[in-house]
Amino acid sequence: MDNAANSQSNISFWHRAHKQMEVETVYGDKFIRFLYQSDLGKQMGGVFANAPFSKFYGLLQDSPLSHRKVRPFIQKFNIEIDQYEPGSRHAVDIRDSYATFNEFFIRKFRLGQRPFVPQPERMPAFAEARYVGYSSIHPEIRFPVKGKHLTAAGLLGNADVAKPFEGGPLMVARLCPVDYHRYHYPDNGKVIDHFPVHGRYDSVNPLALQLKGDIFIANERYVTLLQTENFGKLAYIEVGAICVGKIVQSHRWNKPFLRGEEKGYFLFGGSTVVVVGEKGAWKPSQDMLDNTAAGRETYVQLGDEVATKL
Predict the structure, then answer these.
(1) Is residue 54 over pLDDT 70?
(2) How far apart are the C-alpha atoms of 27 and 37, rounded to whole Å?
(3) Cα 149 from chain centroid?
(4) Cα(67)–Cα(44) distance, rounded to whole angstroms?
(5) What DSSP designation does 179 have?
(6) Local structure of 74: helix, strand or coil
(7) Residue 242: closest CA among 13, 51, 23
């Protein structure tokens, strides 16, 4: 993201379904700006961008008292809550059905709300998020700064494992705290390997990304190598961020997966999923490529097309 205006004022993105530019309402905006723009915040950054703080904050969202935050959150961010399944509490109003804030945070879509594109040559969105995409990883990539921070080796934390993905296509799906926080498989296939890469818990807000360019290769993340039916090998990377209590893998590793099947979810906090492919296997959708070149993200609903097979 090389959009200077976004670093100074509002964060705007193209909403594909609404066919218009929209402005992001940032949860905890003042805290993020304090942490990454003020001298005091920069000095205190190490206190907040670490696992103990994020895990402690995550535990607070599991407290029974945290359910009181749900109604105001839904109202402030205009969340269409009727699209989602209710929580575990018996309540007349779905907004009162979530026992904790984390239960609300990992809410599921109701059946049929987000169909996945069925055509084998079209890759469905694996997360409902703000996407940027590139046909190949190369030094001129400018998200968040020069592409040296988005090498396959840097993202995977292992140069040997990264070799099949050098020069391949790349998509970054950024989830905000207001978003649906479950992530899914983009095709049928099997897991080849999986491993954690330990690191920090910096914010993935665009402001933080512009001011601290190594976040995607320095943050806590989990890497899964997938062999898919239609898109070759994929490196599927979940990136932790500030206040993310936990990255949960809900699918068993030794079990084949199906297109659209849930892979896992993030507990409280905004975060990111990165998918890297083999060179020449597929490319991101054209509107995503165009918007990325223009310095803006594309908001894509879960299951809609994000890439096509070459």
Answers:
(1) no
(2) 17
(3) 17
(4) 29
(5) S
(6) helix
(7) 51
